């Protein structure tokens, strides 16, 4: 692809580094932005910059938040007795959209995957164990993707948490094996939460 402007080329290179965006799509986005008012583009740039400069990870659960604690953790109407464990905050948002879960969350920040060099120490697991030890938690619900990595992570977490006397459950497999939580439709995901089963070692 030949460019007549180094600035356009730089913008295309930056946008094409996003997952799922090739050079042609990036060029279309650049052409679109060139036609928009300067204030609109500045607003977009500011919003993207704030993702890195002003966004926090909740100090309790690991969710993304504008403050030190996320809106779920500070909500007094959410049950302290059930923690839903998810891979990432996109899964948390998918579950929230079902309006089926009224407890608290814990975001791992990934899944155990030895092939990718991701072990238990790379994830937000120690703080989960700490929450179970020091709070009134009676159930930990695993809402992890139905993949080898998801199953491996569930097994590891169950081994770590079972000695603390909590009930370990996992969402019903209305989610297809190999499926990702964030892409499941709300009805299927809602049923999976409502019909969760105890996770047996």
Q: What is the CA-CA span between the terminal residues?
A: 55 Å
| Main sheet specs | 5 strands, mixed
Provide a count of the helices: 7
Number-wise, the strands total 7
CATH architecture of the largest domain: 3-Layer(aba) Sandwich
Protein architecture, described:
By secondary structure, this protein is of the alpha/beta class. The protein folds into 2 domains: 6-53, Helicase, Ruva Protein, domain 3; 57-198, Dna Topoisomerase Vi A Subunit, Chain: A, domain 2, CATH 3.40.1360. The chain contains 7 helices and 7 strands, in the order H-H-H-E-E-E-H-E-H-E-H-E-H-E. The chain has a 5-stranded mixed beta sheet with strand order 4-3-5-6-7. Helix 1 packs across helix 2. The protein is elongated and about 65 Å long. The N and C termini lie far apart (55 Å).
Describe this protein with a few key phrases:
7 helices; 2 domains; two-stranded antiparallel sheet; Helicase, Ruva Protein, domain 3; alpha/beta; 39% helix; 7 strands; five-stranded mixed beta sheet; Dna Topoisomerase Vi A Subunit, Chain: A, domain 2; 201 residues
């Amino acid at each position: 692809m030949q460019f007549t402007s180094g600035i356009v080329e730089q913008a295309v290179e930056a946008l094409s580094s996003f997952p799922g965006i090739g050079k042609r799509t990036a060029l279309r986005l650049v052409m679109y932005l060139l036609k928009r008012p300067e204030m609109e583009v500045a607003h977009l740039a500011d919003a993207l910059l704030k993702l890195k400069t002003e966004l926090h990870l909740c100090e309790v659960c690991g969710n993304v938040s504008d403050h030190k604690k996320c809106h779920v953790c500070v909500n007094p109407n959410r049950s302290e007795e059930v923690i839903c464990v998810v891979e990432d905050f996109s899964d948390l948002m998918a579950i929230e959209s079902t309006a089926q879960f009224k407890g608290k969350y814990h975001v791992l920040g990934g899944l155990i995957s030895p092939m990718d060099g991701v072990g238990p120490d790379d994830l937000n697991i120690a703080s989960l164990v700490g929450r179970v030890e020091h709070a009134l938690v009676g159930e930990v619900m695993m809402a992890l993707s139905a993949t080898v990595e998801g199953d491996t992570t569930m097994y590891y977490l169950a081994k770590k948490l079972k000695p603390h006397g909590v009930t370990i459950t996992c969402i019903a497999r209305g989610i297809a094996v190999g499926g990702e939580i964030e892409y499941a439709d709300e009805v299927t995901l809602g049923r999976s939460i409502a019909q969760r089963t105890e996770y047996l070692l």
